[in-house]
Amino acid sequence: MINRLPNVRIGGENNNELYIASQLETNLKMHGFGGLRSKVPPKPPNSAWFHNTIPEQAMACTIQKVLQTINPPPEEIQQQIISNNSSGRGMRGINLEDYETLQIIGAKMIRIQRGNWTALEASEFFKYNFPCAKYIINTRSDIDSQVASQKHTFKGKEDLDLATFDNIKHENDFLAQFTQYMGEETARMIYMEEWTKNVAQLNEAVEWLGFRNCQFDKVLHNNKNGYEHDKTPINVGSGCLAP
């Protein structure tokens, strides 16, 4: 539903790609690179680990590019950008950088709690690499219903092995801790049992994100019967404005 808001582009599942991207930092952490979150001094040319000075936040740009890569603009926009660039009219037509500046880009990160990191480590990664982002954490308070839902939807052995009360409680605890570490101005937890029955709660989250005059008139049921898409028309208001 969030993709119905103006200038929003939230990608679907991505197999925890941003956790994989976090390993670009940790892979070099024990070799004098300090996690690449601050300026890294150069190594001498005769050193086995030779490199020039690495600027502060250099890796953050790379990690942000990962998100843009797995969640690109619509193909028609891409084709217009290619056409403009090839004709030498890039600045007079659609320019990728200008277009993306107006977009609010995000991702559906349903496996963030399954990476080999703690909630604190995850929060530090996202705070540093996406300092202007906001996070909506959607969970359930009824773990028994969550277990039943996963067992009904997923049939693979790996998914069924994870669909136990203890595993899901552990994952929910991770998400609660992640929300706390991120802080109330950056992360907001919502409960599916509540907002699916009361659209006002979802609209409160939309307002918290910074949208103005935006009110969903109903709640859609995406992933109905597993993976079906709800095509019911939905209105967010004629005066809805992006942050």
Overall description:
With 243 residues, this protein is mostly helical. It has helices at residues 17-26, 58-70, 75-86, 96-101, 119-129, 143-153, 157-162, 165-182, 192-195, 199-209; strands at residues 8-11, 104-107, 135-139, 187-191. It has a two-stranded parallel sheet. A two-stranded parallel ribbon has the order 3-4. Helix 1 (17-26) runs antiparallel to helix 2 and helix 5 crosses helix 8 (165-182). The longest helix has 18 residues, at 165-182. The protein is globular. The mean pLDDT is 88.
Approximate helicity band: 40-55%
For the largest sheet, list the strands in their spatial order.
1-2
Low-confidence stretches: none
What portion of residues belong to β-strands? 5-15%
Structural class: mainly alpha
Gap from first CA to last CA:
17 Å
Q: What's the helix count?
A: 10
Q: How many strands in all? A: 4
Largest sheet: 2 strands, parallel
- Assembly classification: single chain
Shape: globular
Give the helix/strand layout.
Elements: E1 8-11, H1 17-26, H2 58-70, H3 75-86, H4 96-101, E2 104-107, H5 119-129, E3 135-139, H6 143-153, H7 157-162, H8 165-182, E4 187-191, H9 192-195, H10 199-209
Parallel strand pairs: 1-2, 3-4
Brief summary of the model shown:
The chain is mainly alpha-helical and 243 residues long.
Which characteristics define this entry?
single chain, mainly alpha, globular, two-stranded parallel ribbon, two-stranded parallel sheet, 4 strands, 243 residues
